[in-house]
Amino acid sequence: MKLSIYIPTLQRDALFNRCLGSIERSIAAAGRAEYDLPMFCNAWIVQKPDDPPGVYPNGGPVTRVFAEWKRHAPRIDVLAPDVYLDDFKGIVADYHRADNPLLVPESKVSSGRLFWALCEHDGLCFAPFGIEDVAGNEEYAASCKLVTANAAAILSAQGTGRMRGIWRQSADEKSCQVTLGAYRLCISYDDPQAYGAVIWKGGDDFIFLGLGYRVTAVEAASGEATITVKGAYTMDADDLAASIDNAAGVTTLDLNGKTLTVKSFEHPLKGTVTKGTGGQI
Prior knowledge:
It is a single chain. Helix content is 25%, strand content 29%. The termini are far apart. Residues 1-8, 230-250, 254-258 and 265-281 have low confidence and may be disordered. The relative contact order is 0.09. The chain is α/β, with parallel strands linked by helices. The strands form 4 sheets. Strands 6-9-10-16-15-14 form a 6-stranded mixed β-sheet, with helices on one face. The chain has a 5-stranded antiparallel β-sheet with strand order 7-8-11-12-13, with no helix packed on it. Helix 1 packs parallel to helix 2. It is globular, with a radius of gyration of 23 Å.
């Protein structure tokens, strides 16, 4: 007599991950006995919600088996996604959890993804796959230079709730709102590739990075002021008293008697901050 045991597909996936996680636990333990360094395991993620295991490589730390991996491979510090699908925001939100910091070891080359990972989700790493093949991508290189120039501000803001990422992932995204300190920032996208970050340094002091978006800062007691972050990291201050110190890159906006301080940075690719006419800075 032949006995057959049927195990549903997702249960088979969980069982396989439990076994693989146990193996990874042993390997990680042996490695950390020699060099006690943080370890991550990256995954070929599920491509479509209804894909069964086997359509994607079975056994990796995909979100549907997170619990098994966390339980059976505790020596692995970070479970990380390889993200080539379009919904980057949704995928990294699933991987960024209280028990799992975000680390992106593979992705498409994208300035928006770079800022979103590091500044919206306090990412440990964003590493596009095949970076050596895009040596001529000056726009992405310029974004990396901008991040590097402001690494201290970004790192000090990570995990504090004082920083938010800005990125227009798709054309149907028109705007977003974030609250930092006493201000509600209404961010509207002026460019199809709008991206960047805002860092609140405390009080009325902000740093804006990126390009292609307009920010309206609203405070109940003081009214509102509007600035625009454009291709050269310049800022518009329409119908407002504004001044700029080119050496320091600091713009102050008169918000109905209250000063809002905004620090901008020269874009490594597109030129310097210049003062123009008609309220442009």
